[in-house]
């Protein structure tokens, strides 16, 4: 059972960001420290992965808690 009303829950969820979250920034920082080039929120692939290493054909999806 939810402790918030539907209106309050809607307000809370509206504030949740979908890009540039803390876990995504940490993952990008690690990749940068290894000197890897990458793209963020790459729209040309299905479901828009958070980080894409195009040269290596790797897509990374960062699932962080909000």
What do these coordinates show?
By secondary structure, this protein is of the alpha+beta class. The protein has a domain at 18-60. Helix content is 32%, strand content 12%. The chain is built from 2 helices and 3 strands. The protein has helices at residues 6-14, 22-33; strands at residues 39-40, 51-53, 58-60. A 3-stranded antiparallel sheet has the order 1-2-3, with no helix packed on it. A hairpin with a 4-residue loop joins strand 2 and strand 3. The chain starts with 5 loop residues before the first helix and ends in a 6-residue tail after the last strand.
| Unreliable runs | none
Average pLDDT over all residues:
89
Structural class: alpha+beta
Number of helices: 2
Beta content comes to 5-15%
Distance between the termini: 19 Å
Task: Describe the global form.
Answer: elongated
User: Number of DSSP strands?
Assistant: 3
- What portion of residues is helical? 25-40%
Biggest sheet: strand arrangement = 1-2-3
Biggest β-sheet description: 3 strands, antiparallel
Order of helices and strands: HHEEE
Rg value: 15 Å
């Amino acid at each position: 059972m939810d402790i918030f009303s539907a209106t309050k829950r809607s307000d809370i969820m509206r504030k949740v960001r979908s890009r540039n979250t803390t876990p995504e920034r940490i993952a990008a920082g690690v990749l940068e420290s290894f000197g890897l080039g990458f793209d963020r929120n790459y729209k040309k692939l299905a479901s828009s992965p958070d980080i894409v290493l195009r040269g290596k054909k790797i897509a990374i999806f960062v699932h962080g808690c909000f």
